[in-house]
Amino acid sequence: MRWFILFMLFLGAIINFADKSIIGLAAIQIKDEFQLSYAQWGLVGSSYYWLYPVTGIFGAAWADRIGAKKVMGFLMLTWAVLQVGVLAITALPLLILYRLLLGAFEGPYSPIAYNHADKWFPPKLRGFANSVVVAGGTVGAMIVAPLLVALITLLGWKMAFATLGAASVVWFCLFQFFTKERPEGEVVLKKKTASKAERLKIKDFLVLLTKPSALFTTLAYFSAYILVVWFSVWLPIYLVESVKMSSAQMGYSVAVIGIVSVLIYVGISMLSDFMFKKSQNWRVSRIYIIAASMVLGAVLLLSLTIFQQPMWVVVAMCLAKGLTYTILPIGPTIMINEWPERGALMTSILTSFGNLAGIVAPVITGWIIGLAGANKIAGYNLSIVFMGGIVLVFGILFALFVKPSSEKNMKPQVNDVDNRKRPDVKYS
């Protein structure tokens, strides 16, 4: 059951990120149809994230209370309605409204999925499980790009969006009828931990979020998500306008970058799991490995401002994306470790704060490119320096200040369901 659930979470992440990234693949058609400037296009990209952080927190807290299956099923149905509703868009205000609502209802998916995966997998496999969920996002955003480009070319961008709405309905039916809410035995254990979760005061919760482990993990995630948003909104245009690729070349390049990057960050996540299993040392297995990956990824990203040959652009993008994205599967594991009884809520804080990058990054990128005027290459290079510099700084801070309490994962605790070996909890 746990492997089927992980597969469904993977498919859900594909739909989630395909929904948000298809607009980048259709950027040229949409910009031409509505006569949008770069600043206006940046506004369209930003609008997706205006409510995303807020609904991510409330949606995840809701899932902690009533269950992940119900909440994710509801979310999928709203995605379907919104994607089909694209057929009615006739002007920029409606396009922004559509992106605003889509972001609002897609915001809770990732934190709920990460926590749901953690619920079904033991600690030694959680890095891998979360990396599979993250991989679904990469597949949806990049690897299926040639298919999405083909749909846009054959059907037009509106019908291509509606096709994704149909995929959401299929996922809803499979997930609701063929999965379970939790492993056998956890229902009883959850009742024992509920009182502790309810008694924690807001003040104590806010103090928890300001502790170095939570704070600098969140900042590192935020820095990486600036790159996530750039890949979703600006990469297709960058490859066409700056690297001078054709639409077909762009689609295949996006797919290659996605495939290689998945292999990299899934492999590093498995290495992190292996190191944790052997040593139980969070600093070595979770922090140093991820921080080193982020720093190296930032350096490779910055190299694009010097070496701009198409082949190197694709190679550097593959490596930079794969290395930088390693914080995405491991970050939730660190945050859940800080408060296991409210794992979805803790993960939603992480992902929602990270998605604040989605509000500012597209607008800043559009503003930077606009400042460069006719020299688009210079504008894109400045945006890459902006992204790479932030990832580099926060990757170093992550290594210096994040020190998870490994004792809570090594010693049995009365209320720590996730980190005890319980015979009555079966990861089927």
UniProtKB/TrEMBL annotation:
Gene3D superfamilies: MFS general substrate transporter like domains (1.20.1250.20). It is found in: Cell membrane. The keyword Ribonucleoprotein does not apply. The keyword Hydrolase does not apply. Pfam families: MFS_1. Residues 5-407 form the Major facilitator superfamily (MFS) profile domain. PROSITE patterns: MFS. InterPro entries: MFS, MFS_dom, MFS_Na/Anion_cotransporter, MFS_trans_sf. It is a multi-pass membrane protein. The chain crosses the membrane at residues 42-62, 74-101, 128-152, 159-178, 219-240, 252-275, 287-307, 314-336, 348-370, 382-402. Keywords: Membrane, Transmembrane, Transmembrane helix, Transport. This is MFS transporter. The lineage of its organism: Bacteria, Bacillati, Bacillota, Bacilli, Bacillales.
